[in-house]
Amino acid sequence: MFLPSYLVALLAPLQWLDRRVLWLERYLETPLSDQDQRALQVACARSGCRFGKFYHWYLQKKVISKIWRTISREGVLRMTSSLDRSNYAALDEALASPNGLLLALPHHGLYINTIVSLVERVRQHRDIHIFYGDPATHPGNDVFDGLCRRIWLDDPQSGVSILYDNRQGLARALRSLQQGAAVIIMPDVFKDELETLQIPFCGRAMNIMMGTAVLARKTGATILPVVCRPQGKGMGFRTEIGPQIACCEPFEGEGVVETGLLNYRTMLKVFKFYESIMDKEIVYWQFARQMYAHDVELARLDQAGMLDAAAALVDDARLHVPSAFAFDGTVPAVTRGGV
Asked: What burial class does residue 132 get, using C-beta atoms within 10 Å of its C-beta: 0-12 exposed, 13-18 middle, 19+ buried?
């Protein structure tokens, strides 16, 4: 275990704090608003931990971010290998197929470590591309961008390339997936909320893009969802690999179904796997405080509840008022000359 891991383990008692500590927030350079505090309290309660868990976790992120800025390529690979506690059998199984592969992971845990490990393993078998926002328009990506360039782009034989989230990057991702390459993509972010759809996720309604499903459908690629989880007392991590997900097709006897709905069903499968892991440790998710800033918990209805809700709508007298227009667009006789 290298020195930063010892430091993180030494400061583990931070996890037992049950209140805010302003000087610690200043040191971590993450001032919290009252709304942030309430949101993180929800995330910590859902994760079964005290508020101090957020501080200890943010300390790990701060330590490793500083390391990423200066560490050499060889140092990155040694460090990542020493911290990795993953079983990659499911990844090896997916790589046995000639289809393109979309490795879809959220901003959870030490996800950059998972990306490094995935790229190093996959590039031994096929070309792999890392798809993310251009740091020129996404300033928070500058450290990650510099790290990727330092590790792989300085070696033209690495089989690794960067694809920015723009038209050129998207076109290249489509071509590469059709040719059997792998692409790492992070589907828990979006640029325009108007282009998203909502799904139930960890007790809230979450906006997500359909882009991962669209890429898979257009290229015949397989989606392999993965989640990075903290492991051990230091900065160890474990990459959990989900089932291979193909684009959803209509159910038997369902008839013609819009492609948009099929893409939505596909993304539900992806995020269902994420939720199975993240729901009890959501404090490690980068966007937890934004999601839990919404006070209203998402209601979940079982089949009986849905039928009761539908019956209530059908029995609503307001729905039985004669419409001004018939379904064919004509004005019903009973309303002509009336209001």
From this structure: buried
Which residues face 131 on adjacent strands? 163
And the tokens for 284? 């490690």
pLDDT of 3 higher than 90? no
Helix (H) / strand (E) containing 264: helix 259-278
Element housing 231 (H / E): strand 222-231
Q: What is the pLDDT of residue 153?
A: 86
Say what angle helices 3-10 and 52-70 make with each other, to 10 degrees: 170
27 to 22, 67, 70, 116: CA distances (angstroms): 9, 17, 21, 28
> Which residue shows structure tokens 């309660």?
45
Q: pLDDT at position 301, please?
A: 61
In tens, the pLDDT along 77-91 reads: 999 999 999 999 999
Dihedral over Cα of 85, 72, 128, 196: its sign: positive
pLDDT of residue 322: 55
First-to-last alpha carbon distance for the chain, in angstroms, is: 80
Mean pLDDT of the chain: 88
For residue 51, give both structure tokens: 């508020």
Rounded CA separation 30/11 (Å): 18
What DSSP element (H or E) covers 270?
helix 259-278
Instruction: Report CA-CA distances (Å) from 187 to 170, 182, 213, 224, 271.
Output: 14, 15, 10, 12, 9
Residues 6 or more apart whose CB falls under 8 angstroms from that of 319 comprise 313
**Length reported for the chain:** 339
